[in-house]
């Protein structure tokens, strides 16, 4: 890190992750970058994402499962300093496809839990086996 004094402590990192609902997933295939905004869930030190097992994102992950994920929070423009204040978390890792149905349900519960604060009260989420595909970083 360029500025150690700017580093967040573990508690601030966890709070930033839990208080936000999306970030940018960065992938690469044959030297071509691909970055896409994604909702996420977070539990036990892992980010998890859902999506179809087709399309550009899936193709990139199949070709190269190494990924980066960035969440940005607290943006404040400081025009007098030609600068911006913000807090961010950047993660790197390998994306793994979640295959087992019971594990998919577990991740779905975590994903919904992460987004619950942003959902309409009174709505119920029902897990349908075979309907959800997950990957984790």
Automatic annotation (TrEMBL):
Protein name: MFS transporter
Stored SUPFAM superfamilies: FMN-binding split barrel
Pfam name, any one: Pyridox_ox_2
Gene3D superfamilies: Electron Transport, Fmn-binding Protein, Chain A
């Amino acid at each position: 890190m360029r500025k150690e004094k700017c580093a967040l402590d573990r508690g601030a990192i966890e709070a930033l992750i839990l208080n936000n609902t999306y970030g940018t997933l960065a992938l690469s295939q044959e030297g071509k970058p691909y970055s896409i905004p994604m909702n996420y869930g977070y539990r036990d030190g892992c980010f998890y994402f859902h999506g179809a097992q087709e399309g550009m994102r899936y193709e990139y992950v199949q070709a190269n499962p190494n990924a980066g994920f960035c969440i940005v929070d607290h943006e404040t423009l400081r025009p007098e300093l030609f600068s911006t204040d913000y807090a961010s978390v950047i993660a790197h890792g390998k994306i793994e496809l979640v295959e087992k149905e019971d594990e998919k349900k577990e991740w779905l519960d975590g994903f919904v839990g992460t987004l619950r604060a942003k959902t309409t009260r009174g709505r119920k989420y029902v897990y349908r086996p075979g309907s959800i595909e997950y990957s984790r970083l």
